[in-house]
C-alpha cells in the first residue's frame, strides 16, 4: 500500500461547508486537502498545478456549476470525481445524476452541523468513499465504457430460456422470468448502460439493488426513468413484479419475494455490510424463479452479490458479471468470478444486447 497521501481537491462555494469538509478530511492521516476553489472556473486553473488524486465538487456554484466543471475535467484532466451536494430533493436530484452521466463516479450528501454521533458516521463514510475513489482509474469521457465485441458465448445455448420454474414454491401470479441486477460504486452509470437499450415490451420485470448514499435513490430512479423505455420505480411491499418494469430495493430495506412472488421489504440484519443487500435479493430470486432467473452483477466495491449469484447459477439460472475493463471498481464482479458463479463476463455495453439476443424472443 502506498505511503503517499490521497490528494483531495474541494470545489465548494459555501465557506461553512468547506470548513466542515476540511475538518472531516484532516482527521485522516492518509488524506491531504491540496486545494480549494469556489467554482469550476477557479478549480480548472488550479488542478493542473496541484494534481489531485480525487476531486470533490458541489453542483450549484456561481460562474461555472458542477456539471460544466465535470465535463471539462473529464475531457482535459480526468480524475475520480465525488459529487457532494445538499440537493437530495426530488426536483433537484436529476441534476446530480447528470454529473454522473458526465463522468463523476459517486454522490454523497453534503455534511452539516448536527449531532456528534451523526458527524462521526458521516465523516467515516466520506473518508471511506474517498479512499475507494483514490484507487479508481478513470479515462476521458469518450472512453468511459469501452465498446468491444462480445466474447464468444461458449457454452451458452442459443434459443429461449425456460419461462416457468414449475411452481416449486407457490403460485406466481406475475411473469415467470426475472432479471436481477446488483451494483455499487459506479452503478448508476452501469445501470444506465444496461437498462437504456432494453425494449419497453420486455416480457419480464427487472429487480435492482444499488448501494447509494441515503437520500439519492429517488433521484436515481427519476434519472433512469427519463433515460429508459422501461417504467422505473421503487418496489413496495406486497406488489407483484410486472413485466416491463424496473424495481429498485428501497433505502435501508432488503428486497425479497414471498411464496406468491410478491415483494417483501425487510429490515433484517445487514448482509455483506449492506441493507439492501444484492445477495439477499439474488438468493430470493434463485429460490423463487430457479432456472428462469437471470442474475447480473455490475461494478462495485466488496463482495455483496457474489454468494447470491452462485445461488442463481446453482439453481440453473443465467449469470453475467461486468468485466474489469468497464468496471469503475472491479470488486463485486471479481468476487463472483472467483466463486465460479459468473457464467459470462462481459463489457457493460454488451450486457443488454447479450440478454436480448440470447434470452428474449427474436421479435419484441
UniProtKB/TrEMBL annotation:
Signal peptide: none annotated. Residues 147-167 are annotated as: Disordered. InterPro entries: CheB-like (IPR008248), CheB_C (IPR035909), CheY-like_superfamily (IPR011006), Sig_transdc_resp-reg_Me-estase (IPR000673), Sig_transdc_resp-reg_receiver (IPR001789). It comes from the Bacteria. Phosphorylated by CheA. Phosphorylation of the N-terminal regulatory domain activates the methylesterase activity. Residues 171-359 form the CheB-type methylesterase domain. GO terms for molecular function: methyltransferase activity; protein-glutamate methylesterase activity. It is an enzyme of class 3 (hydrolase). This is Protein-glutamate methylesterase/protein-glutamine glutaminase.
